[in-house]
Sequence to fold (255 residues):
Amino acid sequence: MSAGGAGGAGGTVTAGASAGGSAGGALGPCSAQGLVLCDDFEMEPLGAQPMAAPWAASNCFDGTHVLKVDSAEAHSGTRSLVSQNIPYADCQLHADLGALSDFYVRAWVYFAPGNADQFEAHEVSVFELVPAASTDDPSIRVGFRGNTCLPEGIELNITGGMEQTGCTGKTPVAGAWSCYELHVQSGDAGVTADLSIDGVDQSYSNHGTPQMQITNPDLKSVRYLRLGARSYSGSYAPLVYVDDIAVGTQPIGCK
Fold:
């Protein structure tokens, strides 16, 4: 993944500080340079949805999904964010990142083990980036896609106009933590994104064309981070955990 400089205004949380109030140590998950947002969920109440800055107040009226701080799995510390079956955009966590044109998103992701075919669902996103908080399209989606990705596996999808679906062919790992780091660059020519997993830069098949990054000229910029597992193909039963979510203007790394 190539490194890039910062562009635009800063975000909503002091670099190096967790949203819930705990500070990352010298080697902690919130210790990277250039952070504008970082949350390790250690100071968030167990069993509750995070509501303090940088997360916006919820505008969700669905009571059937899961989105809360939990202690069953954690990458660092003892807590993480667990989610399941989020039905629409307003039910995900939202954070306003400001006007960033060149930035990185790092998330530690844990897919709870399910059935043998759990990764054959049409499309399940773990985190998304959008220009407006409540809209579905256009968006950048990071998760996995089964029956419509060739090859199936983890995807980097940029919707808007003609959907640009980057199929990595890498099957998600169930029952283990993986580090996802996304590099996003935006401008008049559109939005370009590239994903690394556990420090390995991914390549893609996009409508059958090999690519090293995904670009959609119909999406010019993104502003909001949305967090929480959302299925675009009906229910997805296994729980999905995210920990040590961070956004920064420099590469963050898998700390």
Q: What stands out?
A: The chain has a mean pLDDT of 89. The longest strand covers residues 177-187. The chain has one domain: 35-248. Residues 1 and 201 are 5 Å apart (CA to CA).
